[in-house]
Amino acid sequence: MFTLPAYAAPMRARSLNALMCALALVACSTEERGRRDAINNPIDTTSGGNDGADASTPSTAGTNTGGDTTGSSANGVGTTGGASTGGASTGGASTGGSTGSAEVVRFVVLGDGGTGEAAQIKVAAAMKKVCADRGCSFALYLGDNIYDSGASSEDDEQFKSKFEDPYVDLDIPFYVVLGNHDYGNNGANILPEDARSAAQVEYTARSEKWNMPHYFYTFREGPVAFFGLDTNSIVIDRFRPAAMQRSWLDAEIKKSDAPWKIVFGHHPYLSNGQHGNAGSYDGVFFNNGARMKDLVEGSVCGKAQLYFAGHDHDREWIEDSKCATSFVVSGAAAKLRGVGSSDRQLFGDASKYGFMWVEIDGDAMTGVFYDEDAKVSYEDMVMRQ
């Protein structure tokens, strides 16, 4: 079943090109892009501030090890561009994917990777090894996809040098969300450029690997429903503001019958890294993630089993007794920065680049942090209640 995203509805009677533009399947003409964006983007009533550009549930007890990868081959492949059987979501997009609940789902999670430099390439090689040994069907890519200031258009060469080339040996789809650096101006959010974020949505039509059918969207793999957020717009409350995405997320989670629900975005809810927790990002009083904090506490806690984020350039697993959701930061795909600790932190490391490998089998989710040499750094498990 394939239905139109909400913003495409007024274009149903228009040309085929206009329809495909609305679905981000072809590059839009200036005229058609204007029509689409006028529907999709609310009028901006706030001014941007500095989000802090870079300066430099129940779970079993975890284990730190140093072993190599083991396991079996991958199963199924993710799909993108479709919409859920009951119609499209307001503001967002839904993809079909598989709907069975018995299959095992395996994937990798990484963020803050878009440099095109040696560390990104080395992590990609480690992912290739782990995927070959243990299986993975797709990747969640958590933002800051094109350093330092995003892409100028869907034709920008940086998509090749900072995404396609580093991950050329990974024959899996990447489900991508936006980070603060993808909005231009070195991620500072002083003058965020929505045209740069649009370029990454539009690039979906140009790539066999890159999947960002909308700024925020959902897709399903077997027993798992995934919900990707545009957290930068939530933080600055512009373009696709917090109220819009929260309303969409509430509706999508409510109607989903998936046993497992996972939300992913760029900005963390809890982090012991430099940027810190939502509501107090970077120790500033503006763009400090207060709206992100409200959204997670109202729409994610106890409603999704996991929330994956990047933004801080480290690897963390955090549990919060007040929120029946596990929080993972996996932002070490190409950059590193110091990380502290807290009594809620099960694992934290900023000494090595890396990523997380995930397996969901029945009522158990296993998460394994690997470093850039494909060595296990930490392993833990979440049981679905």
Pick out its properties.
seven-stranded mixed sheet, 15 strands, 21% helix, 8 helices, single chain
3D structure, described in words:
There is one protein chain. The protein has helices at 16-22, 30-40, 118-134, 158-164, 194-202, 231-236, 242-255, 290-299, and strands at residues 93-94, 105-110, 138-141, 174-176, 210-211, 217-221, 224-228, 260-264, 306-309, 315-320, 323-330, 345-349, 354-361, 364-371, 376-383. Mean pLDDT is 80; it is low at 1-90. The protein is of the alpha/beta class and 385 residues long.
Question: Can you give me a brief rundown of this structure?
Answer:
This protein is α/β, with parallel strands linked by helices. It contains 8 helices and 15 strands. It is globular and about 45 Å long.
Which strand order spans the largest sheet, edge to edge or round the barrel? 1-6-7-8-9-11-10-12
Mean pLDDT: 80
Strand residue percentage: 15-25%
Please count the helical segments. 8
Q: What is the share of helical residues?
A: 10-25%
The sequence of SSEs as H and E is HHEEHEHEHEEEHHEHEEEEEEE
What is Rg?
19 Å
Q: Give the end-to-end Cα distance, rounded to a whole number of Å.
A: 30 Å
Q: How many β-strand runs?
A: 15
Reported for the largest beta sheet, the result is: 8 strands, mixed
Uncertain stretches of 5 or more adjacent residues: 1-90
Q: Which class do the helix and strand fractions yield?
A: alpha/beta
Shape: globular
List the helices and strands and how they pair.
Layout: H1 16-22, H2 30-40, E1 93-94, E2 105-110, H3 118-134, E3 138-141, H4 158-164, E4 174-176, H5 194-202, E5 210-211, E6 217-221, E7 224-228, H6 231-236, H7 242-255, E8 260-264, H8 290-299, E9 306-309, E10 315-320, E11 323-330, E12 345-349, E13 354-361, E14 364-371, E15 376-383
Parallel strand pairs: 1-6, 2-3, 3-4, 4-5, 7-8, 8-9, 9-11
Antiparallel strand pairs: 2-13, 6-7, 10-11, 10-12, 13-14, 14-15
Helix pairs in contact: 7-8
